């Protein structure tokens, strides 16, 4: 069946611009996670959605970062006024229930010039 | 203490060797654990789940030691294709029981 998809696969933007990254989770998965991975580094948790509950935003690095999940399915991660340190691979994962196996999308590679 | 801690490596081993990685976790209430594999410039993929004392799948064995709060991954008869980064994952059972915490990974390089 279809896995987690993300778009775009690559995004190059100029410092100060806003970007939107999209994640389409596996159908029926109630939990959705966003992570960030800089080159050669581990996964950095950003935000977590579970059903209709308020999202866990504890990992968002600044108020320039926000995310929403519409209709309990597709999620969009928005980064406003991008900075060079935002350059990383942004990974989305979904799971059928909390703390269960997470299935990752291929990621969006963001480069801020 | 970090929630999940791993030796970053790299572990450089010849083909056919047996190699083991350890991962320590801080939350004693955690019940289930995972090992994920991440190839270079790829997304992580589930390798094994560990729900009780251990799990074995072919050349791979994962063990859980609750008393010492660590899990291990043993790879026997290493193949070149085993070269990757192995991520240890533990649920965070604190204020939020729904989050998985990923270690920074242990890099394995198998050489001919």
Query: Stretches of chain B where pLDDT falls below 50 for ≥5 residues?
Result: none
Strand content of chain A: over 45%
Count of alpha and pi helical runs of chain B: 0
By DSSP, the count of extended strands of chain B is 11
**What percent of the residues of chain B sit in helical stretches (DSSP H or I)?**
under 10%
Distance between the termini of chain B: 37 Å
What would you say about this model in short?
The complex is a heterodimer of chains A (113) and B (112). Chain A has 113 residues and is mainly β. Chain A has strands at 5-7, 10-13, 19-24, 31-37, 44-50, 65-69, 75-79, 88-95, 103-104, 108-112.
What does this structure look like?
The complex is a heterodimer of chains A (113) and B (112). The model of chain A has no long low-confidence stretch (mean pLDDT 92). Chain A has 113 residues and is mainly β. The radius of gyration of chain A is 13 Å and the shape is globular. Chain A has no helices and ten strands. In chain A, the strands form two sheets. In chain A, strands 2, 4, 5, 8, 9 and 10 form a six-stranded mixed sheet that branches. A four-stranded antiparallel sheet of chain A has the order 1-3-7-6, with no helix packed on it. Chain A is 0% helix and 46% strand. In chain A, a hairpin with a 6-residue loop joins strand 4 (31-37) and strand 5. Chain B is mostly beta strands and 112 residues long. Chain B starts with a strand and ends with a strand.
């Amino acid at each position: 069946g279809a896995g987690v998809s993300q778009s775009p696969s690559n995004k190059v933007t100029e410092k100060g611009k806003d970007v939107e990254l999209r994640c389409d989770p596996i159908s029926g998965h109630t939990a959705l996670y966003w992570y960030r991975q800089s080159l050669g580094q581990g996964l950095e948790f950003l935000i977590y959605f579970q059903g209709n509950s308020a999202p866990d935003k504890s990992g968002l690095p600044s108020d320039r970062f926000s995310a929403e999940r519409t209709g309990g399915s597709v999620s969009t991660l928005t980064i406003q006024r991008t900075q060079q340190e935002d350059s990383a691979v942004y990974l989305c994962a979904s799971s059928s229930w909390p703390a269960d196996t997470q299935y990752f999308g291929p990621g969006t590679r963001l480069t801020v010039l | 203490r970090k929630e999940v801690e791993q030796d970053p490596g790299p572990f450089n081993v010849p083909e056919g060797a047996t190699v083991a990685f350890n991962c320590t976790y801080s939350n004693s209430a955690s019940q289930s654990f995972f090992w994920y594999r991440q190839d270079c410039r790829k997304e992580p993929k589930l390798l094994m789940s560990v729900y009780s004392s251990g799990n074995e799948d072919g050349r791979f064995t994962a063990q859980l030691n609750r008393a010492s709060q660590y899990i291990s991954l043993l790879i026997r008869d290493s193949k070149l294709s085993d070269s990757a980064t192995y991520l240890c994952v533990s649920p965070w059972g604190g204020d939020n029981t729904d989050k998985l915490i990923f270690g920074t990974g242990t890099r394995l390089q198998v050489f001919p």
